[in-house]
From TrEMBL:
Matching Pfam families: FmdA_AmdA
InterPro entries, per the entry: FmdA_AmdA (IPR004304)
Organism: freshwater metagenome
Phylogenetic lineage: unclassified sequences, metagenomes, ecological metagenomes
GO molecular function, one term: hydrolase activity, acting on carbon-nitrogen (but not peptide) bonds, in linear amides
Gene3D superfamilies registered for this protein in UniProt: Acetamidase/Formamidase-like domains
Protein name in UniProt: Unannotated protein
């Protein structure tokens, strides 16, 4: 190789390395100023819950999260029937965001998620679209290493897609268990709430009172058996505050789109709520007529299902409408 070729190759390698550093930097550029243990958690989102920590907008937080079974599942012999059901779906927090008031939005940017080495999935009696074809209860263990998941029962491997199933704030009134989702967020079970996403949550109580849990190493749309790869681990988040702007439901903002959500006791209601929320934002913030919004969402939006394990006793559904970022509506809120 001549000297010119050597330097050309060196420049190419330097550029490639710089690109990798920049990509990694998004996740690791800021050290957390606050760390919260998984032992500081809630089992329900309530209107009057008290924070374990108070932070200013812009704070980076490292949160430790239990798996949804709180460590009770270690082998295939640990099925749902053997578990303490009072210890299901904890959420780490609450976190008070100083200055947050009703009518604002708390924005949670998910900078990184690091799942632990072992997770579990289940077949649960009376749950899911395929339940009549299976023998329940059953548990499967998954090994997680270097971005790859291995289903130990059959050796099948697939990539990790880590996300938070539960992300929410204190509701307007009363108490809502972490198993459920509603206007406050909660158990949204949307795989899009992973690394790089920003979740905008409407504030109903002073400080918002954010809590996060139910980590998955991977979860599919619908979560049809009722579980993803349930796993514990740590997450790195950045909390911000949008004053005077909020949606009626949680909104997830991605690089190329923003995603509204809706919940209901059945999937039809959930789908309708997700569509209505997207249309309302287009009309209220971006000047669309309702007819234009309706047609635009039909031709350019993507309606989908986040959670619809059916049947499920006392169950619910979560739907989503994905709206492409265009110059006319590049984000959910036209901030004033």
């Amino acid at each position: 190789m001549n000297s010119i070729g050597f330097f050309e190759n060196l420049q190419i390698k330097c550029a490639q390395n710089l690109k990798k550093i920049k990509e990694m930097g998004y996740r690791f550029q800021m050290n957390p100023t606050v760390k919260i243990s998984r032992d500081q958690h809630i089992w329900a989102f309530s209107a009057d819950m008290k924070p374990v920590v108070s932070v200013e907008p812009g704070t980076v937080i490292e949160i430790e999260i239990w798996d949804c079974f709180t460590g009770q599942v270690q082998s295939e012999s640990d099925t749902l029937l053997t578990l303490d059901m009072t210890r299901i779906n904890s959420a780490t927090g609450p976190i008070e965001v100083i200055g947050a008031e009703p009518g604002d939005s708390i924005s949670v940017t998910i900078m990184d998620i690091k799942p632990g080495p072992k997770g579990a999935g289940m077949v649960i009696p009376q749950w899911g679209q395929l339940i009549e074809h299976t023998t329940a209860p059953q548990t499967r263990i998954f090994a997680v290493q270097d971005g790859t998941i291995t289903m130990e029962s059959n050796g099948v491997t697939f990539p990790t897609r880590p996300m938070f199933g539960v992300i929410g704030v204190a509701p307007a009134s009363g108490e809502i268990g972490t198993f459920y989702a509603d206007h406050h967020g909660g158990n949204m079970d949307d795989y899009l709430n992973g690394i790089g996403a920003t979740v905008h949550l409407p504030v109903f109580q002073p400080g918002g009172q954010l809590a996060i849990g139910d980590m998955h190493a991977s979860m599919g749309d619908g979560e049809i058996s009722g579980t993803g790869v349930e796993i514990g681990g740590t997450g790195l988040i950045k909390v911000d505050l949008i004053k005077g702007n909020s949606g009626g439901w949680p909104i997830t903002e991605l690089k190329d789109s923003w995603v509204t959500h809706g919940t209901g006791s059945n999937i039809q209601d959930a789908l309708k709520h997700a569509c209505e929320e997207a249309a309302k934002l287009l009309v209220d913030h971006w000047g669309f007529t309702i007819e234009d919004a309706f047609i635009f969402l039909s031709v350019a939006g993507d309606l989908g299902i986040a959670q619809n394990c059916h049947p499920m006793p006392d169950g619910f559904a979560v739907a989503k409408m994905r709206v492409p970022k265009i110059s006319r509506a590049p984000k959910p809120f036209n901030r004033k």
